[in-house]
């Protein structure tokens, strides 16, 4: 799915320092478990003191001491490089954390350009590259409202009618004709049906 990764990863080739990886392992495990349960921590993009700390490495001078610790703790699992925010996973992999306004389109493209997979498989397509709080819920919402999936599911879920054997009768007792029409305009020969 290279087109999906290009926007957030093409510019980022910086490695993460090893001490930072060790510090963030426990926090990432918590984040993964929260994701699998369909819930997540507060969206980092909506927490401006944390995003400022991640991007600039500093906090407002009047930030209370206990708040500073919280911001530092939150910020440890993220990595910002050239305006692209990443979450550092327990195994050291960095996953893009797209801003909230970009997520719906990202999920939609992953779902529609890869065969309209269901919730789990659409999520599996995104997870190697992206992570954000509530990602599973976003995918569920998008897949559930997909009009194409709705039509296909309706066709698959339609009940199959019971078949009844036809009685064996004499030759030419029953005829079958595939007929289409009437068509408009009619043909040059004046015909309006095809069979
Ligand atoms: Zn679909």
Protein topology:
Elements: H1 2-9, H2 18-36, H3 48-56, H4 65-75, E1 78-81, E2 84-88, E3 94-96, H5 100-112, H6 119-126, H7 135-144, H8 147-157
Antiparallel strand pairs: 1-2, 2-3
Helix pairs in contact: 3-4, 5-7, 6-7
The structure holds zinc ion (ZN).
Protein described:
There is one protein chain. The protein is mainly α. It has a domain of 84 residues. 46% of the residues lie in helices and 6% in strands. The protein contains 8 helices and 3 strands. The chain has a 3-stranded antiparallel sheet. Helix 5 packs across helix 7. The longest helix has 19 residues. It is elongated, with a radius of gyration of 28 Å.
Question: Which percent band covers the strand fraction?
Answer: 5-15%
* Strand count: 3
Strand order of the largest sheet: 1-2-3
**What pattern of helices and strands is seen along the backbone?**
HHHHEEEHHHH
In this entry the ligands are: zinc ion
Low-confidence stretches at least 5 residues in length (pLDDT < 50)? 1-40
Described by strand count, sense and barrel closure, the largest sheet is: 3 strands, antiparallel
Outline type? elongated
Please give the alpha-carbon distance between the first and last residues. Answer: 46 Å
Q: Helix proportion of residues, in percent?
A: 40-55%
Rg from Cα? 28 Å
Total number of helical segments?
A: 8
């Amino acid at each position: 799915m290279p087109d999906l990764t290009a926007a957030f990863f093409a510019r980022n080739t910086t490695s993460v320092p090893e001490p930072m990886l060790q510090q963030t392992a426990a926090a990432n495990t918590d984040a993964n478990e929260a994701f699998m349960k369909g819930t997540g921590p507060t969206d980092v993009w909506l927490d401006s003191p944390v995003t400022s700390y991640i991007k600039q490495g500093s906090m407002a001078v009047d930030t209370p001491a206990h708040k500073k610790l919280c911001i530092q703790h939150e910020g440890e699992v993220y990595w910002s490089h050239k305006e692209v925010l990443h979450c550092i996973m327990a195994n050291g992999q960095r996953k893009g954390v797209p801003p909230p306004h970009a997520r719906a389109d990202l999920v939609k493209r992953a779902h529609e350009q890869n065969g309209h997979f269901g919730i789990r498989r659409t999520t599996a397509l995104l997870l190697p590259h992206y992570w954000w709080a509530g990602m599973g819920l976003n995918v569920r919402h998008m897949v559930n409202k997909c009009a194409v999936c709705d039509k296909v599911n309706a066709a698959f879920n339609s009940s199959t009618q019971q078949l009844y054997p036809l009685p064996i009768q004499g030759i030419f007792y029953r005829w079958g004709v595939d007929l289409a029409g009437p068509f408009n305009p009619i043909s040059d020969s004046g015909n309006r049906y095809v069979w």
